[in-house]
Every structure is written in structure tokens, then in C-alpha cells.
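Z., the sequence and structure:
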Amino acid sequence: MTDPKTIDDMTVEEREEFLVTLAESLLLSASIAKHEGDDLGLEMEKLGKQLLMDAASIAADGARKADEVVLTAINLLAKFELGNPGSRTIH
């Protein structure tokens, strides 16, 4: 098994695929959060939709821009998971 790649090591196509997967996770978590009345749902939904629309351009802009978006998304997902430990949205 190979070591996971960092964003710096990914090709543009790999970064885009990763960002789309992250967007889908945000949207799933947003749906759960909104159902549970968690205010993070709106923020996760907004970022998830934006990521789906802009994944290609963010990936093409390079690892630095992708890093910023990924950190924001992971932070939101972690906050949601901490507030809802049984949600299992982070895998």
C-alpha cells in the first residue's frame, strides 16, 4: 500500500476529484446538520455547493488555494462531528 498523497503531490485532476469528494461530504453533513437543527448546516451547504461549482478552478490554481479550502472544510466537518459525535460524517 502506498502512502497517501498530500495536496502538493496531487495532479490537478486528483485535486479536483478530492475537492468534489470533500464537497459531497460537506453537503451530506449539511443535510444531517440542518435536520438536527445545527447552524453549521447552512455554512457547510454553502461551502459544499461552492466547491462543487469551483473544484476545477481551485484545483488548477494550485495546492496553496486548495489547502485553504480543504482546511476550512475539514474545520467545519470537525466542528459538526464534535457537536454530534454519533453522526459518523467523518470517515
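The longest helix spans residues 12-35. Residues 12-81 form one domain.

Let me know what you think.
H.
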